[in-house]
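Researcher: Let's continue the batch. This sequence belongs to Amidohydrolase, and it's 388 residues. Same format as the previous ones, please.
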Amino acid sequence: MDNNYINLIEKITPEIIKIRRQLHMYPELSLQEFETCKLICSFLHKIGIPYKIVADTGVVAEIINDENYPTFAIRAEMDALPIQEETSCEYASKNENIMHACGHDAIVSIALGLSYVLYQTKENLKCNIKFIFEPGEEIGKGAKAMIKGGALLKPKVDRILIFHLANSLPVGMEIRKNVSTCEISSLNIKIRGKASHWCEVNKGIDAIKVAGKVICAVSEINDTYKSKMPFVVGIGTIRGGVKTNVIAESVEMKGTLRTFYERDRVNICKLLSKMQEKLQKESGSLIEIKTMPKIPSVYNDDELVTIGRKVGKSIFGKQHVTTSIKPYLAGDNAGFYFKRVKGARVVFFAEIEGEKNYPLHNSKFNFDEKIIPLAIQTIYKIITTKFS
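Model: Same format as before. Here are the C-alpha cells for Amidohydrolase:
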C-alpha cells in the first residue's frame, strides 16, 4: 500500500483538531444541527467532494470512482446532548446547557479528515465512498431519516462502518465479534386502581402501592434472570396521583428494556406478563404493560472484524486491540442501516493519561485528541484492505 496517506493524515490533522474544537464550542441539539451542517458542507466544498443535504441538517457526500465498484459508507453522528459542560478546557461549550458529551464532535472531524485523505488518494481506491453525516442520533431518529432520504442508494451501499469514542481505556480500539450494540425497546406500564378518600381506605385500590410492587418485581427480574449477555429492564419515570388526601387511581411508568439477544427480550417480556397477572389478582387493579422495539442491534460482519482486528494491531499494538470486552448496553439507531447492509462498529479508546476520566454523557467528559489521526489511519486501512 502506498504510504502517502500517512503524510496526508499528518498534514490535515492540525486543521481537523481545530474543527473538532470549533464543533465542541458550538454544539447543537438533535435535528437542530444547522451550523454543524454548514461547517461540514464548507469543508467538503473546499476539498472538492460533492455533497447534498438530507433531512434538513444531514449531509451525504460521495467519492465516485467507478459505478461498477462497490460502495463503502462511513456514518458520522452530528448532534450534542442537553448537558451543561463542566470541563475547564479552553474550547468548552459556549452554548448553554448543550455539550458534545458523547464525542460526536470528534466523530464528525475524523470523518472529514478521512474524506480529505480518501479524496486525495482516490485513484488508488477499488471502491466508491459515501459519507453519511447523521443528525438526531441521540434521539434515535437520524438513521431512519437518512435512509428515507436515500442515503444508502444511488449508489447502493455495500458495506458500512460506524465508530464511537470512549475514554475508559488507554489509546486503542475494540471491534467486537458478532453483536456489538443492544436492541432497545420502550417499556410502558399503566396501573388503574380506584380513587377514594384516605379516610376510607377499604373503598379504594391504591395504584401507587401497586406501582411499588411493580418496581420491586422489575428489580427482581434484573437480579434473577440469567443470560450469557448483559441486559437490563428499568423504569425511568413514574407519574400518578392527584392530591395528598386522595388514594391514587392511576399511575404510569416508563422505562427501557435492553437486550443483545431476541430470546432474552422474549423471555423477559414473558416474566413481565406473569408479574402483571399475579399483581392484578393480588391487588384488584388493572395493569397494562407494553414493550415496543425501538432500535435494532448492530451485528458486526465477520470479514470486517477480521480485517479491523489485523489493522488495529498494526496501528495500536496487539495489547490495545480487543474483540471480547463485555459489551456495553448502548444502543445505536445505526441498527437500521445494519438491517439493510453488512458492516462493522468500531470503538476507539482515548483515555487521558494522568487525569481523571469521566464517562460518556457526563458534564466533564473529554478524551485524548491523539486518537484523531490514529482513527483516520485505522478506518482508511480497513477500507483499502477490504477493497484492495
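Researcher: Any comment?
Model: The domain at 183-295 is CATH 3.30.70.360 (Alpha-Beta Plaits).
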